[in-house]
């Protein structure tokens, strides 16, 4: 049956996001297994980009960045066209660029003076997550107004709230024994949001009310 003009269908973009986010999560899990010399409660995620296994963490940055870029392209087509939906897309695209830059520019080793690469990496990573959290918050508003996404409003708002709280606590936890734990909680929230949105688009493509039935006169 042909789809109506307003119906969105599952495409390769949503599947690619699922694969990329899953790959990023696996990469982060693997690097934690390999780098037993680092304390995940204390150490920031970027510290894992150093050493002989640093390429694994770099892969996670690239995978998550490309996933955000693809989501910025796909998500507006799965919602009613609006300025808010376009705003979500812009935030996702900008965050994707930031995550790719964080992978391109390497973090410096501990106790070594910051280089321009370190500064770019840190600013790009922080900026990317701030933009992603902004997209999560704005998309909760989109879900509230789009009947096809009403059932995602609760989970989306919950994840966005956790992300906002996590981002707010990150500066407080910085350079404390809980720095790494706070950052990982925030990262897991963002991973979960991207994956759930992509899964919903992929496997539940027609979230829209049925067309009204006109009664015969």
Protein described:
The protein has 217 residues and is mainly α. It has one domain. It is built from 6 helices and no strands. Helix 2 (54-74) runs antiparallel to helix 3, helix 4 packs antiparallel against helix 5 (153-173) and helix 5 (153-173) runs antiparallel to helix 6 (179-203). The model is unreliable at 1-6 and 207-217 (pLDDT under 50).
In short:
The protein is globular and about 50 Å long.
Number of DSSP helical runs: 6
List SSEs in N-to-C order: HHHHHH
Number of domains: 1
The first-to-last residue Cα distance is 28 Å
The residue ranges in which pLDDT falls below 50 over 5 or more consecutive positions are: 1-6, 207-217
**Overall pLDDT, averaged?**
82
* Main sheet makeup: none
The secondary-structure class comes to mainly alpha
User: How would you describe the shape?
Assistant: globular
Number of strands: 0
Provide the gyration radius in Å: 19 Å
Helix content: 55-70%
Strand content is under 5%
């Amino acid at each position: 049956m042909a789809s109506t003009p307003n119906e969105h269908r599952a495409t390769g973009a949503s599947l690619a996001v699922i694969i990329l986010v899953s790959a990023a999560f696996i990469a982060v899990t693997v690097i934690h297994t390999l780098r037993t010399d680092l304390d995940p409660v204390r150490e920031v995620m970027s510290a894992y980009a150093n050493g002989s296994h640093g390429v694994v963490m770099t892969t996670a940055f690239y995978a998550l960045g490309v996933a955000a870029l693809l989501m910025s392209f796909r998500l507006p087509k799965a919602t009613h066209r609006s300025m808010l939906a376009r705003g979500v897309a812009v935030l996702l695209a900008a965050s994707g660029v930031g995550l790719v830059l964080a992978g391109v520019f390497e973090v410096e080793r501990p106790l070594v003076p910051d280089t321009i690469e370190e500064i770019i990496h840190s600013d790009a990573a922080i900026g990317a997550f701030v933009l992603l959290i902004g997209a999560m918050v704005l998309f909760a508003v989109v879900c509230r107004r789009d009947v096809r996404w009403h059932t995602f409003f609760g989970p989306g708002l919950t994840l966005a709230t956790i992300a906002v709280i996590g981002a707010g606590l990150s500066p407080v936890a910085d350079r404390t024994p809980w720095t790494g734990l706070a950052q990982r909680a925030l990262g897991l929230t963002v991973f979960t949001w991207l994956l759930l949105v992509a899964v919903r688009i992929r496997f539940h493509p027609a979230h829209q009310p049925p067309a009204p039935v006109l009664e015969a006169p």
